[in-house]
Amino acid sequence: MTSFNEKFENVLMVIAEKVDKNQYLTSIKSAFTIFMPFVIVGSFATLLNAVIASPKTGLAKWIPALEKTKTAFTALNFATMSFMTIPIIFLIAFHLAKHYKLPEYITGLLAIASYITVIPSVVTIKVDEITKTASGIPSSALGAQGLFIGMILAVIVVEIFRYLMKLKFLKIKMHESVPTQISTSFNTLLPILIVLCITSIFGNSFFQHTGLYINEYIYKIVQAPLEAIFQSPIGILSIVIFSQLFWFLGIHGGLVISPIRNPFIAAAVAANVAAVNAGQIPTQPVTYGFWMNYIVPGGAGMILSLIIAIFLFSKREDHKMIAKLGFLPGIFNISEPVVFGLPLVLNPTFAIPFIFNSAISCGIALFATKIGFLPCNTIDVPFGVPILLAPFIGHGWQGTIVQIICILVCVFTWAPFVLISNKQWKPETK
Known about the structure:
Largest sheet: 2 strands, antiparallel
Helix content: 55-70%
Mean pLDDT: 87
Structural class: mainly alpha
Radius of gyration: 25 Å
Strand content: under 5%
């Protein structure tokens, strides 16, 4: 009879397989993976503003001419973070088109054009207590607040376009001598027209009946509540533990949950940057930088803490050898040498700390944020920046202190299980 553990493992394996094979989740994951460097660069624009352009904290305090660079850094931030919905829509549609063997670039552009048809095309401007309207797209529709409807619309548009492309009577046949690109353009002409008519009419009808544009409605009803849940202790801790369960099975948990996690962490850092630019205090704790610094420092499951615990408490030469090999990679948040070398995969001795330590560390950092000690970051440091330095760049000196506390606490949560493994070690395994 199959044990409960085996059934549970099978369920997780099925989930991981379905996530990996689902074309929508795979496209979303690929889109955010590709765009993540731009989010990080955009967050660094805030740092450059503070270090160079600010007359209070930057070099502009001594070199006034540098204050003029603020416009450039603001433009850099807008081009990456405050404009993220448009490239994300393109990338999702592009990858779906590649999966369905549709013309990738045309499909990506169609998804963007469809999104533009359902969002506001005017902005409200207040000048001298007089409210006026002008042609333009509100920044909220281009930035993180438009992510969810943009992602949903990209998927829907591709599916409609795929169906229309199967209808032969909609294709304009060209002579064989006509270049492929021109022939493709004419073949897609009528399907593009139909898709854009559908989205335009739908967007206009939605606004007429609700008084809200679809992006405003989805943000208010769907995205904002989900962001609040994700940023809550219960929400983020559940996702962290869920990720570690996959790691325990030998599956990269971060990749499994990334289609769910990445839109939220991108939106969070964008909201923090927007708050700082508006002279407010950022309030979204869980960002990419938070994840790297306080959920997986030294590797998912707090592997660097395990390495230190092995150095301090282990009597096993085999474990010490693996720890030595994994120490340097662990400083750069690479945990695979220990996860698969010790191994931790399907290892019942280390299962409890491996699954729950990242959640413990996350809880400590959330508490530090709650009491006002750890500031919410506006700078996401890329993967590979070593521990202690990464939280200093993202969160200041407080970030480094909190990371040290997290690592030390997890050393002692690993320690009892290292001692248990000592007792399990038999002389013949030397």
